[in-house]
Write a structure and sequence with these properties.
Distance between the termini: 36 Å
Low-confidence stretches: none
CATH topology: Serine Threonine Protein Phosphatase 5, Tetratricopeptide repeat
Mean pLDDT: 96
Largest sheet: none
Radius of gyration: 14 Å
Strand content: under 5%
Order of helices and strands: HHHHH
Number of strands: 0
Shape: globular
Structural class: mainly alpha
Length: 101
């Protein structure tokens, strides 16, 4: 049982890295809709527990002007107790300066 969990967790971590890097590359190329779709698939089908995904979703929401998605990203970061990432997202919202890293 532990082995099966470990394999599943390793796959989850790998997919988060792969999809996250791809989404960031697309966002940097201003392909915001592609980046958004990739991150929504990650959160919906791989894991909702990766705070980096919610931070990127929030940044994409700012650039796309989607206040509902931004609110959801902020709420989920608060739920995950990711104060530092939440502050980063709030600063991006306040200043309008979004960096995809």
């Amino acid at each position: 049982m532990i082995r099966a969990w470990a394999v599943r967790k390793a796959v989850e971590i790998s997919l988060c890295e792969l999809y996250g890097k791809y989404a960031v590359l697309e966002a940097r190329k201003d392909n915001l809709k592609v980046a958004l779709e990739v991150m929504l698939q990650l959160v919906g089908h791989v894991t909702p527990e990766d705070p980096r995904a919610h931070l990127l979703l929030g940044k994409l929401a700012i650039r796309l002007g989607d206040m509902q998605l931004l609110g959801e990203a902020m709420a989920y970061l608060a739920y995950l107790k990711e104060a530092e990432r939440l502050v980063e997202l709030e600063a991006a919202q306040r200043t309008g300066v979004v960096d995809f890293r």
